[in-house]
Amino acid sequence: MKLTVKGENPIERLLLALRIPPVTLVDTHMSFMRARAIMVGTKLGIFDALAGAPHTALEVATRCATSPGATEKLLNALTGSGYLRFHGGAYSLSAVSRKWVTTDSPSSIRDKVLFEFVEWSLVEHFEDFVRTGKSLDIHQTVSGEQWGLYQSAMRALSGLATPEIVRRTPVPKGAINMLDIGGSHGYFSVAMCRRYPALRSVILDLPTAIVHAGPILAKEGMGERVVHRAGDALTEDLGADAWDFIFVAQLLHHFDEASNRAFVRRVARALRPGGLFAVVEIIRPESPEDGGQLGALLDLYFAVTSQSGTWSIAEISSWQRDAGLITKKPILFRTIPGAAEVIAFKER
Questions:
Q1: Which of 19-23, 292-296, 336-340 is the least confident region?
Q2: Which residues pair with 180 in a beta bridge?
Q3: pLDDT band with cut points at 50, 70 and 90 for residue 5
Q4: Helix axis angle, 57-64 relative to 68-80, nearest 10°?
Q5: How many Å apart are CA 6 and CA 123, to the nearest integer?
Q6: Could you tell me the CATH number of the domain that includes residue 31?
Q7: What are 30-72's pLDDT values in tens digits?
Q8: What is the DSSP string of 62-85?
Q9: H/E element, 97
Q10: What is the mean pLDDT of residues 76-105?
Q11: Whole-number Å distance between alpha carbons of 335 and 313
């Protein structure tokens, strides 16, 4: 998936083909203004106010307790951005806003959009990072409120791909014990255990994550079948021959190569013979010439915020093989562009 500039009419498409318009202004100025407008519309409840029926700008302002004149400006910006429609003096939701940013939508990522206010300040460190090479460590610096936003955001994102991940992950027949490392909110474990009635899962995550993720997991009503265990993935004793299935999603990009190699060795030791180790990650292209805007941008983002970055399929597979595991063909997901599940088994 790649963000790009696209003409809205034949003349604009011709001009773009001739490389006349300053596309960099769209990539920068217009992009950050559009992003902020969508974020503000989400935070102020603009989209939820329109979820039931179309309304005028004054009606929306009344519902959201905002300034009528300023609200109309925002509504027009969101209309021009494709997030609202305008007809007969009233504004209504577009298909994209109804699906992704309304609270009651089954596909809503509203909580992730709200966390982007925190991420907005994080990306301001790009310049300092490039100048100095010094990273932030958001897991050590975020506040309690931000931890809550982070957990809600990760839960919202997990809903996008979990059905496909659960359907396509080759869980060993007869698996009973699952370890979900870094799984915080627990939705992956919940979905796996619902699909496999005999499966039980332990979610290993940092104590501060569990404080805010605990209430999210409790809402799923899984009781003792899915539980939290506080610990650091890099130092916690995972046991030996203890787990049928170890699942790690969007975690390895927080660790450097040496840490990941050591971590995967500990995972291999903890697996029972025939057990599965599944890694879900946004994948960095093997080479910059291969494209991959999403993986490359997130590589920079995670380097700034977690002192590491995204990894290639080849790198993750090599760690698994070096730990004595048998790698299989990776799974490329349709619902997470740029992501893959890199899987390996422990020999029986």
A1: 292-296
A2: 203, 247
A3: confident
A4: 110
A5: 25
A6: 1.10.10.10
A7: 999 999 999 999 999 999 999 999 999 999 999 999 999 999 9
A8: HHHT--HHHHHHHHHHHHHTTSEE
A9: helix 95-100
A10: 97
A11: 18
Q: What contacts 37, CB < 8 A, 6 or more positions away?
A: 74, 77, 78, 81
Q: What pairs with residue 220 in β-bridges?
A: none
The H-or-E segment that residue 274 falls in is strand 271-282
pLDDT for 1 beyond 70: no
Selected residue with higher pLDDT from 165 and 9 = 165
Token representation of residue 288: 């910059």
Residue in this structure with the two tokens 């494209």, named with its chain if needed? 291
Cα 201 to Cα 267: distance, rounded to the nearest angstrom: 15
Burial of 114 (C-beta count, 10 Å sphere; 0-12/13-18/19+): middle
In a domain, 116, yes or no: no
Owning domain of residue 290: 125-345
Question: Beta strand pairing status for 331-332 and 326-327?
Answer: unpaired
Distance CA 309, CA 37 (A): 28
Q: Does one domain contain both 80 and 158? A: no
Six-digit token pair at 96?
């994209």
Beta-bridge partners for 85: 92
- pLDDT, one tens digit per residue, over 249-271 is 999 999 999 999 999 999 999 99
> Could you give the C-alpha distances from 232 to 6, 80, 121, 139, 311, in angstroms and in order?
45, 46, 26, 12, 21
Tokens of 155: 């839960």
Assess whether 221 and 278 both reside in one domain.
yes
**Domain-embedded: residue 154:** yes
Q: Please indicate, yes or no, whether residues 34 and 75 belong to a single structural domain of this protein.
A: yes
| Phi (first) and psi of residue 192, to 5 degrees | -65, -45
pTM value is 0.87
Contact in structure between 184 and 147 (CB atoms under 8 Å):
no
